């Protein structure tokens, strides 16, 4: 249904979002507050006040897909600066969904292969 590898961007809406908002309300936030195109090949993530549930909005070409996840035991590590949007990598999305911070201080960086000798 949603191939993460085909996404141009993964945007995280910092701060809290009213989780009663549906597709129209969330797409309005994307357009009006962040000046981004909700019809682009991007995933938009939103979190409520309690940090235990998120919504994801995605345009799949003929309609919007709205995904909802609620944690039964735990909280998402969500940045709280209001009115800001972050562009995440696929790895940062995995970290977020695993309950980790999106900014890992000691990530081992990728290097270019060199000759053995």
Description:
The chain is α+β, with helices and mostly antiparallel strands and about 120 residues long. The protein has one domain (about 5-95). The protein has two helices and five strands, in the order E-H-E-E-E-E-H. The protein has helices at about 25-35, 90-95, and strands spanning about 10-15, 40-45, 55-60, 65-70, 85-90. Strands 4-3-2-1-5 form a five-stranded mixed β-sheet. The termini are far apart.
Which key features would you list for this structure?
alpha+beta, single chain, 117 residues, 5-stranded mixed beta sheet
Provide a concise account of the structure shown.
With 117 residues, the protein is of the alpha+beta class. It is 16% helix and 25% strand. It contains two helices and five strands.
Task: Tell me the structural class.
Answer: alpha+beta
Distance between the termini: 46 Å
Into which percentage range does the β-strand content fall?
Answer: 15-25%
* Widest β-sheet, arrangement of strands: 4-3-2-1-5
Shape type: globular
Low-confidence stretches: none
The value of Rg in angstroms is: 16 Å
The ordered H/E elements are: EHEEEEH
Structural domain count? 1
The overall pLDDT average reads 88
Largest sheet: 5 strands, mixed
- The helix content, as a percent range, equals 10-25%
Number of helices: 2
Quantity of strands, as a count = 5
Protein name: Transposase
Pfam families: TnpB_IS66
